[in-house]
Amino acid sequence: MEQNKKMAFSPSADRNKEPILNVLNEYIQENKRLLEIGSGTGQHAIYLAQHNKTLQWVTSDVKANHLVIKSYLKENKLGNIHGPETLKIGVDDFPKGSFDYIFTANTLHIMSWKEAKTLFKLLGKRLRAGSLCFFYGPFNYQGKFTSPSNDEFDQLLKSKDSKSGIRNYEDILKAMQSSGFKMIKDHEMPANNRLLVFERLTHKK
Ligand SMILES: C[S@@+](CC[C@H](N)C(=O)[O-])C[C@H]1O[C@@H](n2cnc3c(N)ncnc32)[C@H](O)[C@@H]1O
Asked: Which CATH number characterizes residue 87's domain?
């Protein structure tokens, strides 16, 4: 399992964890519950939860990633990290219970757009007014890449899976608004990434 974990180490998650923490800390309040979708290795969960000790952080991912996440969590025993829960968007519902926050990093360009739309609908169904969603990753604006490296990254993604690809900010905004969310802020992040923050409204528009 040790070898498995080492192979799964994500250098990018290690690089971006601190800038992500700085933004999340503008929003996260005491004693709340967060669901992470597509935890990957669990590196974000460990770093972000250990800097927010009263936050209950629930990790989740497709079953195939659970071994790696469990291995990371075992090595970094933190009382406020839970899971991993099995959650494949398009197949599973969210875990039971209510969540104040949803965090997902680098997943919207991996899952298909159909799955992403299913996620946005689930968010509208499962979150209460005032809950926040954090989407981290690269996004396009009006169909345009924000850097040549994102263009190359998109080509790489599509060569691996034709349904993957960097998503348009405007499409996400429209789908989230239809699910009852308003945009709070689009944060610029290092390395041509963004962190989008949405809030669930009381009523759908
Ligand atoms: C590029 S990795 C990102 C991992 C981690 N969040 C990070 O930023 O390092 C993409 C993650 O999305 C997950 N994923 C892909 N499709 C998914 C789906 N339909 N439902 C849930 N997770 C999915 C993968 O299993 C993987 O963990």
From this structure: 3.40.50.150
